[in-house]
Amino acid sequence: MELAFDYILRGILSVFFTSEGAFIWLPVVMVLAGLVLGIVVGATPGLNGPFAMAIALPVLISAFGTGNDALLPILGFLIGIMKGATVGGAVPAILFNTPGTPDAYLTTLDGHPMTRKGQGYKALKVAHFSSVSGDTFSDIALFIAAPTLAVLIESALDLPEKAALIILSLSFMAAVSGKSVTKGLLVGGLGMLLALIGTTLSGYGPRMTMGVTDLGNGIPLTSAILGVLVLGEVFCAIEDRIHERRKNRQTEAPRESTDNSLSWVEAKRLLPTILRSASIGTAIGALPGIGTTLAATLGYEAARKRQKADAALGSGVPEGVAATEAANSAVSGANLIPVMSLGIPGNFAAVFLILAVESVGDFTFGPQVFRFTEIKVIEDYGTIINAELVIAFGIFTLMVLANLFNWTIGRYVMLSLGILAKIPVTITPALVLLITITAVYSQDGGFIAIWTALAFGLIGYVLRRLEISLLPFVIGFILSPKLEELIRGGFSGSGGDPFFLLKSPIALIFLLASVAIVLRATRKKENK
Amino acid sequence: MTLKKITHSLAASALALSLTTLPALAEWAPSGPIKLLIGFGAGGGTDTQARALAGEIENRKGWRIIPENMAGAGGAVMAANLKDQPADGLTVGLALDATFSFASIDNDNLNIDDFTYITTTAASQTGVIARADSGWTTMADVAAAVQGGQKIVWNNYSAQTQLASEVIADKLGIDVNHVRGKGGKSGVNALVAEDANLAWGGGAQRGLVQAGELVILLSAEDKPLVQNPEGQTVAELGIDTTFGFKFVLAAPAGLSDEARDALAQAVADVITDETSETAQFIAKQYPPAAVVIQGDDLNKTLQAQLAANEMLLNKFSQ
Amino acid sequence: MVRRWEIGIGLTGLLFALFSLFFWFPNDIQGAFMETTRAGKPEPGDAFFPVLLAGFIAFIAAIQIVSALLKRDQEAQGSDYPRLDGENIKFLALFLAIILGSLAVVYWIGPLAVWLTQEELTYRQLVDTAPYKYLGVVVGGFALTFSLISWAEGRLRARSAVVSALLILVLILVFDVALTNIQLPPNADF
Questions:
Q1: Cys-Cys with A60: which of A69, A74, A335, B75 at CB 3.0–4.6 Å?
Q2: 8 Å CB contact of C53 and A209
Q3: What is the domain count for chain B?
Q4: Do B86 and C124 touch (CB under 8 A)?
Q5: Cβ within 8 Å, pair A381-B177
Q6: How many domains are contained in chain C?
Q7: Which H or E element spans position B199?
Q8: CATH number at residue B262
Q9: Taking the CB of residue C136, how many other CB atoms lie within 10 A of it?
């Protein structure tokens, strides 16, 4: 127990002090800056949190480098964006009836009627209160569940077990496949295959590069992920704008807001709704890949079932706003449970946190993170310590900081951003495209980065238009090189035993669990 | 940080002033910004060294140097890219001697004659390492363990170290399972995670050896490693090749001698100055100090290495 | 129609897997599926994992095709199902033409300007010198954002030009002025 406290303390201190012991503001400032940016981005039509995280990442890496000291400031900024964007997303939904994300759509159901009743700013305050409550609730669940889960899984894993664990993680591709498991696994396999380009363990030189020298070290990771997640969305957005222009859709201006107050009594009355939705959001978030939209829907439905006669949901009642905002915000914290304990991204925001961690320092997410190694100090070398665990508690600290800022400053930032919602949605996608191109070019150093991002953008576009989930592709792309290294290592290390994976009981359990996950996902889809 | 930079540049300009009184060693100066390709990923030993070096040459010479990481296949990906650049001294690359004298064997993309070799900067402390709790201190202990029935997994971070492991295991007459890792630190990581019993360290092992967690069993250099001065070398096992590496700065073939010598001199000025950040990094990570082999001497050294490596490969595959 | 798309997706996957197994990998992977170490032990080669993966893709694609063939009843569904139609292809063609055209400007405008104005020097020597180093991102970047915004809005507006110009200014401030040791497009390619 003492050891655990030592690690938690070191984690908290790592945010405020450098490794030399000097006090630093940097991570704290970065959290705040990220949060403000996130709220702004969330409140801007056509932008969203994962976009901003994606573009910020290469800029941050260029600014702070890839040393271990750069990790907490960079993650602080990204976590700030993630949390800010969830809050900010309610602004255009409530004031202009223009949801920026699918889950914000449910916020419009009661939020916009409130605006029409002259309660626009009251609705924003409800949204802020519920959103931050839900988020905080979810973070607490993360702080407890992630270490527990990881400790349960992590028991001196060897090469076969590690390989089987990655296969288990990959089996979640089926769970995040959306409508069709086979299509999800198909694009997951494609992602895994593309990730093998260039890289090789033998002395033969690069493979599968189709003669392109620049692909010798593989497809540049950041460019590829930004391409499929950001550019694919940009392609779709520009096309949608062109179609909409032909249909000539207009948004209405908000009515002057007259009822701007949210009293403590009103807030307290919302608490049961918020708690219910936050629990739903947290439970959903903990399962990889199900996502915020379902959480918001379930939260709203649960509130509808309990609605009182005088406050029917959909007519512009605070409960409606609270139910959706608390649920969708509660997803983000819990979503980091599979990220931190297994390294599986459950949503797009998590993908960019994983990407940051992969690119900066020598930290990786996974069960090894929560190993409570005995701390030993050795002269002239440093300390033998599980540095990853310290970083993990540092990340938790950053999240707590972000919540504190969100409770205090975030409210004012959000309330002042109504104006941003007027930014025309015709402008943002083109700007995002140029920013992305410039950012990947500077990080990956050449046109190869732009070609990669565009090619992967095209993949993202096609998958979106065919309504095939993108997450299996991204998960496969990220995990595949590691799996190859472990499988080849396990095979050679066992002296060439082709059944090495099946000879360890733990590995066998992981493999059976993988099969179960895929079968379950398939059955569930068929019942629908 | 800024203050440190200012004092650095002050010191540098003072040095530059004192040097102006000497006859200029080389007239050549780059006609534009120099791109320094780093054959390894960000954050590793090569990267740290290259970036420090770039900054200090910029400060001292006023040349603009832009470092860029181009990792993959032990520097070979960078080298394949470098060889196609113009030989005007505006693109140079930092990799290992093995990139040119080992990876180039049977490689369609790479030939030792594709490059102009400028200078070495430092030499590795390569050796075979194991966990301290294995109780081993020499390779003989390993051989005894194998004879006692223990299964040995040996992690090799490159094709060259795998060949070396096979040669050594052959000499000792033992049977081991070889595993390939990625990157110079993978051997150390595999030992710590207990995924392997033996591994190679080229410098990354320093801290953990110091800490008593790992031990050095064998030096792959021509003399014992600094951290294990009484230890065995490969020569003592009857192997007449070394498996350590040196960092080599290269340019595309056809670079003028003037440019080559001016670049080599600029590098040497920094790494042989014990007060420079680069020299201090080298002294710590690749002890005892910078290794400077330049121009024609370097070319001859690499050609000799290539011949030795080819002979070893031929002998061993028969 | 729904079924045709379902089968099509499966077939695409299957063809890709077969193309990889019988054309791409044999020509582009030097290592074998299994190799023997010099010490005489079997070990997986560079082709090992790609071949397994391609096999996996082929297997899943086959399931996709078979299950689409078995589900005859879906045929009745309406016309609104996920697909790429002629409209999408037309959009993509024009969209990619705009992007590639702008990127060509990004790449060539700097060297062209140097060729026109400089006697001795080449662009390679001026990639870190203003104004040349900004030309690509200023002219090409402007062409890209301005044309895409105008297309989306269906008209040319001064506002679009101002927004594009402002963004480029911010990009230069961030990626060139604030951050050293990284380069704006296309300067790292020369």
A1: A74
A2: no
A3: 2
A4: yes
A5: no
A6: 2
A7: strand B198-201
A8: 3.40.190.150
A9: 25
Structural domain span for residue C106: 87-189
Cβ contacts below 8 Å, chain B against chain C, sum to 39
Collapsing DSSP to helix, strand or coil, A306 comes out as: coil
Between CA A502 and CA A482 the distance in angstroms is 19
Q: What is the ipTM of this complex?
A: 0.94
B15 with B115, same domain? yes
Burial of A359 (0-12, 13-18, 19+ CB in 10 A): buried
pLDDT band (50, 70, 90) for residue A359: confident
Residue C82 lies in a domain: no
pLDDT tens digits, B108-145:
788 999 999 999 999 999 999 999 999 999 999 999 99
Q: Does C24 touch chain A (CB under 8 A)?
A: yes
Same domain, B74 and B176: no
Q: Are residues C93 and C181 in the same domain?
A: yes
Q: Are residues B176 and B81 located together in one domain of the fold?
A: no
Contact of B171 with chain C, judged by CB distance below 8 Å, is answered with: no
Note whether A66 contacts B: Cβ–Cβ < 8 A.
yes
Say if residue C27 is in the same domain as residue C98.
no
| C103 with A424: Cβ contact below 8 A | no
Q: Is residue C35 part of a domain?
A: yes
DSSP alpha helices (H): ranges in A259-317?
A: 264-286, 292-305
B88 touches chain C (CB under 8 A): yes
Peptide bond into B288 cis (omega under 30): yes
Question: What's the one-letter identity of residue C83?
Answer: R
Residues of chain A in contact with residue B71, where contact means CB-CB under 8 angstroms, are: 217
Helix, strand or coil for residue B154? strand
In this complex, do C30 and A466 lie within 8 Å of one another by their Cβ atoms? no
DSSP H/E element including B166: helix B159-172
Please give the average per-residue pLDDT across A28-51, as a whole number.
89
**Residue B169 structural domain:** 127-237
Same domain as C112, residue C38: no
Q: What is the DSSP letter of A454?
A: H
Domain's final residue, options B237, B260, B279: B237
Could you tell me the CATH number of the domain that includes residue B158?
Answer: 3.40.190.10
Query: Does A212 contact chain B (CB < 8 Å)?
Result: no
The amino acid at residue A165 is: L
Mark whether B249 and B120 lie in a shared domain. yes
Instruction: Tell me how close the Cα of B173 comes to any Cα of chain A, in angstroms.
Output: 17
The H helix count followed by the E strand count for chain A is 22, 2
- Spatial distance between the Cα atoms of B227 and B128, rounded to a whole number of angstroms: 12
Q: Do A214 and B81 touch (CB under 8 A)?
A: yes
Chains in contact with chain A (at least 3 beta-carbon pairs closer than 8 A):
B, C
Best interface-test mutation with A: which of B100, B155, B177 has the largest number of A CBs within 10 A?
B177
What whole-number distance in Å separates Cα of residue A349 and Cα of residue A48? 10
**Chunked mean pLDDT (size 10), chain C, 190 residues:** 86 96 93 82 90 96 91 60 87 96 96 91 91 95 96 92 95 88 89
For helices C86-117 and A232-247, angle between their N-to-C axes, nearest 10 degrees = 110
Verify that C20 and C105 share a domain, yes or no: no
Chain A with chain C: Cβ pairs closer than 8 A: 187
pLDDT attached to residue A370: 76
Q: How many whole angstroms separate alpha carbon C116 and alpha carbon A391?
A: 54
Paired tokens of B126: 């390569």
Tell me which chain B residues have a C-beta less than 8 angstroms from the C-beta of C35. none
The minimal CB distance from A245 to the residues C148, C154, C185 is found for C154
> Quick one: closest CA in A to C137, which residue?
A438
pLDDT of residue A383: 66
Note whether B117 and B259 are same-domain residues: yes
Give the C-alpha separation, A126 to A510, whole Å. Answer: 44
Q: Residue A510 contacts by C-beta under 8 Å, 6 or more apart in sequence?
A: A161, A164, A165, A167, A168
Tell which C residues from 61 to 80 touch A, by Cβ distance under 8 Å.
Answer: 61, 63-64, 67
